[in-house]
Fold each of these.
Amino acid sequence: MVSALEKNKKHKLKMQRQKERIDSQIAKNKLERGIILLLTGDGKGKTSSAFGMVLRALGYGQNVGVVQFIKGQQLSGEELYLKNKLPGVEFYQMGTGFTWDTQDRSADIKAAEETWAVASKMLQDQDLDLVILDEITYMLSFKYLDSDMVIEAIKNKPHAQSVVVTGRGGGATLREIADTVSEVKEIKHAYNNGMKARKGVDY
Amino acid sequence: MVSALEKNKKHKLKMQRQKERIDSQIAKNKLERGIILLLTGDGKGKTSSAFGMVLRALGYGQNVGVVQFIKGQQLSGEELYLKNKLPGVEFYQMGTGFTWDTQDRSADIKAAEETWAVASKMLQDQDLDLVILDEITYMLSFKYLDSDMVIEAIKNKPHAQSVVVTGRGGGATLREIADTVSEVKEIKHAYNNGMKARKGVDY
């Protein structure tokens, strides 16, 4: 039997080694600039993760811009919060509803272009610390927006600005220019087990 | 060459079919209750996703409780925001620092147990619509908390309450009892390319 004392000793040694590894990695990392973060994949959690980063940035009093492509016509919880409680955040929504609701390709393209005009301004705004481009990847896969144009604009963002891109897919070039890429995989989803989408959780 | 008109027509048909599929799925889903959501995997975005759901719930005026296990001693952006701007949210942090900082197994276990006491109360509170158990999975893998005890408490949450569990791993039983499981996979991380962790993005 291993005594509690021995367990504690072993633990301390292990943690000391782990701390050394972590500290040496931290010491090695010297680059400081805003990053490009891609949150992709088919699982739940991409948009909410972007909004969590909005909170994170606001905690330090940073300036934030949020642009949402493809959204239902009803405001979701995080959008209500943004509109009502966070007037300091620059917030723009395409707001035409889902593309299967509009069923109008030309109108969708026009709305996408108008929304992009707002987004591309934010991507040039030195004062914004964080810009969220929520679900913009669909604009690329539907070819509503030119992929090269969007990627160039993201690449040319101000040095200190971080950009978060969310949505399934996005293409190889977007993955390439991103500093961090997380793929959110759906292992299972309540929706496929007869559960209604839930206020405060799903929207 | 396909004319723009034809493209629009084809698009409309395709979207009509998609809308039918989506509407029929929505009509089929009749279950309404709070869900258990597990955000796991090694990628960036789990904690921020949980905090995004906090915003989502607050947008509807819901009541939220957040318990954070394993945290640095410095407050991160989302924690600062929660403490300073959202006094209505019940918020508790283990706050002993990372386990590789404390290097003290007995003290870690004691802190984990104290933190669990707060969490388990929240999991019995009918008034809370959403409870976040941030990074609790590590308490299970380190065996700081008894896995069966934690899983029973989550399973027995109030009917309408949703619970979000974050952290790598978590074990098979937790995956089983969860309604929705997303695995956030690290495709790449700026940290591995010499980039410093960034305020408002990483913490």
Amino acid sequence: MVERIATAVGTPNIALIKYWGKRDDRLILPMNSSVSMTLDEQLNTRTSVLFSEKLQADTVYINGTVQDINGTEVGERMVVLDILRGMAGDKRKALVVSNNQFPTGSGLASSASGLATLTYAAAGALGLELQPRELSMVARRGSGSACRSMMGGIVEWRKGDKPDGSDSYAEQIIKPGEWPELVDVMAILTESRKKVSSRAGMKQTVQTGILYRSRLDYVEGAVERAIDAMRKRDFQALGELIMRDSMNMHATMLDTWPPIMYLDDSSKEIIYKVQELNQSEGRIVGAYTFDAGSNANIIALEKDVGKITDMLEGLGSVKNILKLKMGNGPRRLGDGESLIDGTGLKPVA
Amino acid sequence: MVERIATAVGTPNIALIKYWGKRDDRLILPMNSSVSMTLDEQLNTRTSVLFSEKLQADTVYINGTVQDINGTEVGERMVVLDILRGMAGDKRKALVVSNNQFPTGSGLASSASGLATLTYAAAGALGLELQPRELSMVARRGSGSACRSMMGGIVEWRKGDKPDGSDSYAEQIIKPGEWPELVDVMAILTESRKKVSSRAGMKQTVQTGILYRSRLDYVEGAVERAIDAMRKRDFQALGELIMRDSMNMHATMLDTWPPIMYLDDSSKEIIYKVQELNQSEGRIVGAYTFDAGSNANIIALEKDVGKITDMLEGLGSVKNILKLKMGNGPRRLGDGESLIDGTGLKPVA
């Protein structure tokens, strides 16, 4: 069989209405639908995949380090290789070399970016020609939110109802060019690793949350309203939904047992500063949203980015500020950008 | 009519299952029942009250400063004077002199202590002989949680159902001497004033909370289970209920619009340290609970106080540690301890 190295680049997404909680841990079926914005390539994952007869076992390098994939979370995520091999009728083992251009495990959605890019590259290496919807369902099995990074612009992940997950996939709602003014101002506050992984935190919330059910009652309507606001390019309505959903999710975490607390004094300071800015202008200038980490994402319109970066620059806790536009989703790179050595057995030096 | 200066001392209480939200703002009827522990006199309010023909208007000194009572929150709380005057058929104006032996407005329940003590002293000054239940209903009108400081030991405030509030009062569940081992280790983290008063925060939660309804579904059962655990002297069951209820309340605050955030990095550190201590001992050694402020109260049994204070002393953010036992509720002080000058028109120098 032909041996083909496929290399791709993909990006994180920032959820505007959050995914938090699974109804099926193995298939990674979410308790609720979610909406996100796929980001541009300033933060990205580059991944090369090769399926080869020469390999005795799947071998995975992330950021230059070979990974233990036996019984580990990284190993579980490699289920996407098995699914794609099954689709292709191919039993060869894979060499995966993946590099993140941002801190791993710091709430910067490295798993979404990583698994979307891996799925995209691995499908290419196997010569599979899959639709974005099919790719998103494969990526979902590796990391739920990865399904949303499989396409560009504004993306909805419909929770679906079927037990086999065949209706739980991502769909593009708005193309990047259709609302180019919408941006994400990301304030990087810390690179420290999270105390609780998203995966463990979600499980704990579903199992022990007292208030969590009430979030589920709320959130499907919020997804609909957010999509409606985006279709109307109504940033005022969208901004409030974004902020409320983020706080609502963090509230359900605080209420689990034991409590999960991702927000810290630096994130609180940003929340207060954004509220002040919005109050002083009498409109929503920026809408903060926090994932399972203490970095801040402030969604805004291009014309207001200066006001937001000025505010952020005044804060001692902000290490770095990025202005991210909507990205296009994963794409293939040429052979010259392969991360796999000519021998097909190890990363390039 | 006889002019009588009555002086009393009263104390704060720490809620074990919290009161958060009113169903009637004027009568101060709570959305849910609550349970608290009245604390001993290490923290206290001393108040002298005199009703006199010589006064043209109610005059209120708190911590040596005369208060503006026209259209202010302090003024609203003085409704207890009107209620007691109504009961006594007395129209004289009052001089109130009240001193808190702890920081006002820093989440240390100064309003509970203050209004319970004021009600107790004012009833005395008017010569009213009221039962604790009646006194608790009057104090409730000044500050909801003050009704629980009207008696000692473990106290339940039953929310009641009647629109006139006649069944919304406090009752003693356990006398101080019946479970003397139960103590509150209070870690004072800050004396800064709260960003949002409890009164405003509750109103906002009731009006805008998405998750709040779900707290109400939960909390009546939690009150019952906490009382049951206390009657059985089952600290393990009680401790978990205390911690979960505190986090649950703070979660509903985070989810209001705009978000209310009383917990900070210092409180988070204490939460993590208590969790670690409990984990390492394989039992609940201490149960943290936070009111609408960032001070920590750690409920524990006397035998474990050393372990908790050792842990707290290692934290840079802890300014002061108090070990508080259950108190007995308000009591009258002798004339020698009056805070009102012999002229009856001003505080003692």
